[in-house]
């Protein structure tokens, strides 16, 4: 079977990560950094697309991976996908309807949407397919997980599906089990923290960190008593957008300690700051409690617990979680994210015909 070359694109708030894979082997990796003022001058997230796309093409050409190079010819391009309609897990072709939805509404506010749009443009220019894999709106929740006690408000599935499922499969490989025959709990811990119950290949429940569910994080408030929040909303001190910003990116460890960097927090603890120690312990406590909730979702039968994301680099933080949950099931710690490889693997499976290419409707 011949090798396939795949370009993966993952835009973040101030970076665009790119990688070229030969099957599953990374042969090029770059992180393109964008100046915040330059991005602001673009006017909107969608306005950043020409700048980011130009930098991607320039980086490929400078690395000798451009279209003119005969020794490497790209077979597919895969990009992160933003807030489109809820989808099943899998590899999707980026068609016209997905492009339309990525360019409008809530999706247009998230840099991740640019991954799909840039991938489609590059795919069209090179005459190769453009894919996206396990988008953040992957929705496999059971009905019981969606219903709330307030008519008109339903819980939704928005989580780090790409990395969570990739790390779940990695844990299954260590356990000698297939993902489709396993019951796991995966905690992705970064700027947002999502904890999901993986039940035989499907994530049947997960907290919506964007909407204020689950543990507090380095930047987010997590779940709060509602009435005090309602009082804040009607105090006249905050606009709606200011309240949204407060909950989603101006709370958590950042508000409590003045930093969203776990390394700084640990340095404060080392210097004797007892409140910093309490903040870290409380965050670990709340992650552990969310894991416990997912144990109930899986009826107490758990094959493994996975801790992943940037915060998993902290032995102190993961150690405090393991103290509370390692009697439930084996704990696997996989620091960082494997989103680029996971995207490439999804595209490779599509090219090799080992998975069905899904169409966005």
Which features does this protein show?
seven-stranded mixed β-sheet, globular, 361 residues, alpha/beta
In short:
It contains 13 helices and 12 strands. With 361 residues, it is α/β, with parallel strands linked by helices.
Outline the fold blueprint.
Blueprint: E1 5-11, E2 15-22, E3 25-33, H1 36-41, H2 49-62, E4 76-79, E5 91-93, H3 96-102, H4 113-126, E6 130-133, H5 143-146, H6 161-175, E7 183-189, E8 193-199, E9 202-206, H7 226-233, H8 240-249, H9 252-257, H10 262-270, H11 274-297, E10 304-309, H12 315-325, E11 331-335, H13 339-352, E12 358-359
Parallel strand pairs: 1-4, 4-6, 5-12, 7-10, 10-11
Antiparallel strand pairs: 1-2, 2-3, 5-6, 7-8, 8-9
Helix pairs in contact: 10-11, 11-12
Describe this structure in words.
With 361 residues, the protein is of the alpha/beta class. It is built from 13 helices and twelve strands. The strands form two sheets. The chain has a seven-stranded mixed β-sheet, sandwiched between helices. Strand 10, helix 12 and strand 11 form a beta-alpha-beta unit. Helix 10 packs across helix 11 and helix 11 crosses helix 12. The longest helix has 24 residues.
